Amino acid sequence: MTQPRAALIAPSAGLAACVRAYISRSTLGADLQPLERLNYFPATPLCGMSWLSHGESYQLPTGDDDTAPQRLPRMVFFGPQSRPTVSRNPGPAEGFMLMLMPDALHALTGVDVGALVDRTLPLHQVLDADWCAMAEAVLQAGDDASRVRLIEAFIAPRWQAARQLGAVPVRSYEDWAQGLAVRAMASGVGQSLRQAERRIKAWTGQTLRQLQGRSRAEAVFFQARDAVAAGNVDWADLAAGSGYADQSHFCREARRVTGLSPEVLRRRMLEDESFWIYRIWG
Prior knowledge:
It is a single chain. The chain is of the alpha+beta class. It has 3 domains: 5-162, Jelly Rolls (Sandwich), CATH 2.60.120; 173-205; 209-280, Arc Repressor Mutant, subunit A, CATH 1.10.10. Helix content is 43%, strand content 17%. The chain has 10 helices and 10 strands. The protein has helices at 102-109, 129-140, 144-162, 173-186, 193-204, 208-230, 235-241, 247-258, 262-271, 276-280, and strands spanning 5-9, 19-26, 38-41, 47-54, 58-60, 70-71, 75-78, 85-88, 94-100, 120-122. Strands 1-2-9-4-7-10 form a 6-stranded antiparallel sheet. Strands 3-8-5-6 form a 4-stranded antiparallel sheet. The chain is globular. The protein starts with a strand and ends with a helix. The relative contact order is 0.15. The model has no long low-confidence stretch (mean pLDDT 88).
């Protein structure tokens, strides 16, 4: 038996303002219990593409949604997610994900990102034939290095032609949100705050306030992860140091993004295989 594998792969420097990361996951050969075959994902402002090269995957209903689990095709597109999501692999599976900045996707394709918030769709329903042909080649590739090469060879020239003035490599959601605000104010004819907000919503499908909330939550997550590793977690101090009004405010935001309180999330990250994405994200 082998251990489940998960990896976060950085894009090349020339695509760092467009591609946030690649994610690879495999449970082939791993002896997992049914609950360990779940995959818990946080809410995210990102969008992207997902490939399933082996096995099956089902998107599970969350919250008050009482629909049946949805079997996902081998190639899907997902928009920004305003709430946490859960998927399930009934058996061994292997997959790969491309995480794109939503403003970059809009610049590359003209896709209305706002219409894709909280949606997961077959790839061909969102992207054109050239993108779908690239995706099919990625699905057939034999390893992660080949997948990255195929994606970057396709995106790099298009990004070179489409990239917006002022777009910079994304190191954190906070830097990205601030950069969007600057670009939105400098773009177009009108430079009022209302017009800048409209541009940000058109580029990302989300308001600047929503993006700033996600950036603050990400910053606290990284601080908390470091504190957990050091064995010294003080949620009240983390909340105060990150600009939350109080610990309750921080806990509400954590539940919106992850579905769990900070302390429960900490335990699940340490003990639960299905929270693998939280352990590798950085």
